[in-house]
Amino acid sequence: MREFKVIETTWEDSSHELAVIRRQVFVIEQNVPEDLEWDGIDPQCRHVVARDFGGRPIGTARLLPDGHIGRMAVLHSWRGKGVGGAMLECLLTLARQAGYAHVMLNAQTQAMPFYAKYGFQSEGDAFMDAGIPHRAMRLNLSTVS
């Protein structure tokens, strides 16, 4: 049984708690500059939040209007407990419901095996983003149930 739940939310309703998680994971842990983290498109995205059973936010991710998945972040103490996978599955459901034929993401290279478990395939060469090596990955939703 999971010790958390994942729900869809909006930036308008949950921006503070989503920002707290992203700031902790990306800005503090990974040294991503603040100006790169806050790209101004959050209000147009669909967001998910994972909460523990006490209601505290423990993870977040978003689906951009163009079908990109991004800003997947799980608090350190919750990693390895299925939170990322549950959020990804929720985003994939949202993408299917929206009629996307495929979704894309830019995975940190160390996270590529995680996304590959869900059927994502890498495309192109590695590139640096915010000083962290990444690879583009794609999942065709029409071939995955």
The radius of gyration computed from the alpha-carbon positions, rounded to a whole number of angstroms, is: 14 Å
Q: Write the CATH fold name.
A: Aminopeptidase
Count structural domains.
Answer: 1
Shape: globular
> Mean pLDDT, as a whole number?
94
> What percentage of amino acids are in beta strands?
35-45%
Low-confidence stretches: none
CATH architecture classification: 3-Layer(aba) Sandwich
C-alpha termini separation: 23 Å
Task: Give the C-level CATH assignment.
Answer: Alpha Beta
Q: What is the share of helical residues? A: 25-40%
Tell me the major beta sheet. 7 strands, mixed
Number of strands: 7
Largest sheet, order of strands side by side?
A: 1-2-3-4-5-7-6
CATH 4th-level superfamily: Gcn5-related N-acetyltransferase (GNAT)
The run of helices and strands is: EHHEEEHEHEE
Helix-strand layout with pairing:
Elements: E1 4-9, H1 11-29, H2 34-37, E2 46-52, E3 57-63, E4 68-74, H3 83-97, E5 102-108, H4 112-116, E6 121-129, E7 132-140
Parallel strand pairs: 4-5
Antiparallel strand pairs: 1-2, 2-3, 3-4, 5-7, 6-7
Structure at a glance:
The protein is an alpha+beta fold and 145 residues long. It contains four helices and seven strands, in the order E-H-H-E-E-E-H-E-H-E-E. The protein has helices at 11-29, 34-37, 83-97, 112-116, and strands at 4-9, 46-52, 57-63, 68-74, 102-108, 121-129, 132-140.
Description:
The chain is α+β, with helices and mostly antiparallel strands and 145 residues long. The protein has one domain: Aminopeptidase, CATH 3.40.630.30. Helix content is 30%, strand content 36%. The chain contains four helices and seven strands; from the N terminus they run βααβββαβαββ. It has helices at 11-29, 34-37, 83-97, 112-116; strands spanning 4-9, 46-52, 57-63, 68-74, 102-108, 121-129, 132-140. It has a seven-stranded mixed beta sheet with strand order 1-2-3-4-5-7-6, with helices on both faces. Helix 3 (83-97) links the parallel strand 4 (68-74) and strand 5 (102-108). The longest helix has 19 residues, at 11-29. It starts with a strand and ends in a 5-residue tail after the last strand. The model has no long low-confidence stretch (mean pLDDT 94).
